[in-house]
UniProtKB/TrEMBL annotation:
It comes from the Bacteria. The lineage of its organism: Bacteria, Bacillati, Actinomycetota, Actinomycetes, Kitasatosporales. InterPro entries: Flavin_Rdtase-like_dom (IPR002563), NADH-dep_flavin_reductase (IPR050268), Split_barrel_FMN-bd (IPR012349). It comes from Streptomyces tirandamycinicus. One of its GO terms (molecular function) is riboflavin reductase (NADPH) activity. This is Flavin reductase.
Length: 181
């Protein structure tokens, strides 16, 4: 029988955000672009995205409280998530750049199509798209946790995802044919 150690005091972690960021960087994540349509469309790169439930079909994403996208999602009924493919690092960097143009102009630098269920921009060539209705939002420290009910989805079979690990964009290593790694 093992004994679990007590969690470190909060100040031990909060006092060194760089160390926390490095430790969290040990967890590889996918890379997405979250979008909202309408008269002033908005996009943002996010890697805090995951499934919540299969029935009902729910996904979540976490957005910094000070991000424009956080206010945009709070006011929108729907949003979309494009899971970027391995060759789309430039798209991820574009939507992470805070100096990019606002509104529709930020989409001029990328290929996209309007979502059928939400009209939110979907990044062309992405590994998968999820169109969602806002379902719930929860406080999460310096972020807000947005949960969406999936209205529509599509995927490009065989498309390798773009991955973020250790503070860098990466590709998934190909597996050897006919056997285990």
């Amino acid at each position: 029988m093992s004994t679990l150690a007590a969690a470190p005091p909060r100040d031990a972690v909060a006092g060194d955000p760089g160390r926390l960021r490095r430790a969290l960087g040990a967890f590889a994540t996918g890379v997405t672009v979250v979008t909202v349509g309408g008269p002033v469309p908005r996009g943002m790169t996010a890697n805090s995205f995951t499934s919540v439930s299969l029935d009902p079909a729910l996904v979540l994403l976490c957005v910094g409280n000070d991000a424009v996208m956080n206010r945009t999602l709070a006011e929108a009924d729907t949003f979309a998530v494009s899971v970027l493919g391995a060759g789309q690092e430039d798209v991820a960097r574009h939507f992470a750049d805070r100096s990019r143009p606002l509104g529709a102009a930020q989409f001029e630098a990328v290929d996209w199509l309007p979502g059928e269920a939400t009209a939110a921009p979907l990044i062309a060539g992405a590994a998968a798209h999820f169109e969602c209705a806002g379902w719930r939002a929860y406080e999460g420290g310096d972020h807000t946790i947005h949960v969406g009910r999936v209205l529509a989805l599509d995927e490009l079979p065989g498309q390798e995802p773009l991955v973020f690990h250790g503070g860098r964009f990466r590709r998934v290593a190909p597996q050897p044919r006919g056997g285990r790694p």
